[in-house]
């Protein structure tokens, strides 16, 4: 009877240790159970040696690899000379997010992909622009966004769209994971050449007006559903790039581009 009680006590202690390790930290689990979890971001870019920022903090240059990050959403920015790219990535427990970017001075020439793993199976592919054709290992599956149930192991994904440069991506799908591939395509050189560049005698600017929140969100698309890239304050001056029905596409002093509500900005009067 005593031996059964001892076994039960030790079993309860063991369960308590597991609960504590899950509740408090990955370091606890590593110390007591020797389980090493991976949480990180890997970034490569063309051109190389682009400066990389995580949540506004400079952390190094590409190629960049960190396996000691907290599980959360990060704002990632790459800069080299006047070329740049910025986006958001979310780390999932026990995985590494891979970012591959061709950075450029304008978004139309920029291309790349973000590879994210999560529990599940198969490959999910989304693209900008959407409705891009998807081939995996030479077989046509359809258009983005699309989820494809493929076997684990190595695959070659080809994403293509009229007037854009094709993007070929080699991936390795682990067991019991779903791989999400988010692809940005660059306009072809021929289509870039057809973009008319009007003569501008003075750079148009807008001034941020007072808002109920004391700040104005800059979003990644012209919609309230767009993700927040950053925030600007009343009185800040932004370069106006494009006017839409209810949104302005603007450039911030640090080079970040995004969309702001037209209701909370006004054109700056020329001097």
Structure description:
There is one protein chain. This protein is mostly beta strands. It has two domains: about 40-190, Carboxypeptidase-like, regulatory domain (Immunoglobulin-like), CATH 2.60.40; about 205-265, Roll (SH3 type barrels), CATH 2.30.30. About 15% of the residues lie in helices and about 45% in strands. It has three helices and 22 strands. The strands form five sheets. A seven-stranded mixed beta sheet has the order 4-1-7-8-15-9-12, with no helix packed on it. Helix 1 packs antiparallel against helix 2 (about 25-35). It is globular, with a radius of gyration of 23 Å. The model is unreliable at about 20-35 and about 195-200 (pLDDT under 50).
Keywords:
14% helix, 46% strand, SH3 type barrels, single chain, 22 strands, 271 residues, 7-stranded mixed β-sheet, 5-stranded antiparallel β-sheet, Immunoglobulin-like, 2 domains, mainly beta, globular
What's a quick, concise take on this entry?
With 271 residues, this protein is mainly beta. The protein has 3 helices and 22 strands. The strands form 5 sheets. Strands 4-1-7-8-15-9-12 form a 7-stranded mixed sheet, with no helix packed on it.
């Amino acid at each position: 009877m005593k031996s059964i009680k001892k076994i039960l006590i030790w079993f309860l202690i063991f369960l308590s240790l597991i609960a504590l390790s899950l509740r408090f930290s990955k370091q606890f689990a590593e110390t007591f159970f020797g389980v090493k979890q991976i949480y990180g971001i890997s970034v490569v870019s063309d051109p190389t040696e682009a400066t990389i920022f995580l949540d506004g903090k400079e952390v190094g240059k590409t190629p960049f690899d960190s396996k000691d990050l907290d599980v959360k959403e990060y704002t990632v920015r790459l800069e080299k000379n006047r070329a740049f790219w910025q986006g958001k990535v979310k780390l999932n427990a026990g995985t590494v997010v891979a970012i591959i970017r061709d950075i450029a001075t304008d978004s139309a020439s920029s291309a790349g992909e973000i590879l994210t793993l999560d529990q599940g199976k198969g490959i999910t592919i989304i693209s900008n622009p959407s409705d891009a054709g998807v081939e995996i290992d030479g077989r046509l599956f359809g258009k983005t966004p699309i989820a494809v149930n493929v076997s684990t192991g190595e695959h070659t994904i080809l994403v293509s769209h009229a007037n854009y440069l094709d993007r070929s991506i080699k991936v390795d799908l682990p067991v019991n994971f779903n791989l999400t591939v988010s692809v940005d395509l660059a306009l072809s050189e021929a289509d870039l050449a057809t973009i008319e560049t009007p003569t501008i005698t003075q750079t148009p600017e807008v001034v941020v007006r007072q808002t109920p929140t004391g700040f104005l969100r800059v979003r990644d698309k012209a919609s309230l559903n767009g993700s927040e890239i950053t925030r600007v304050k009343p009185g800040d001056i932004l370069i106006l790039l494009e006017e839409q029905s209810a949104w302005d596409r603007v450039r911030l002093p640090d080079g970040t581009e995004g969309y702001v509500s037209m209701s909370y900005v006004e054109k700056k009067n020329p001097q």
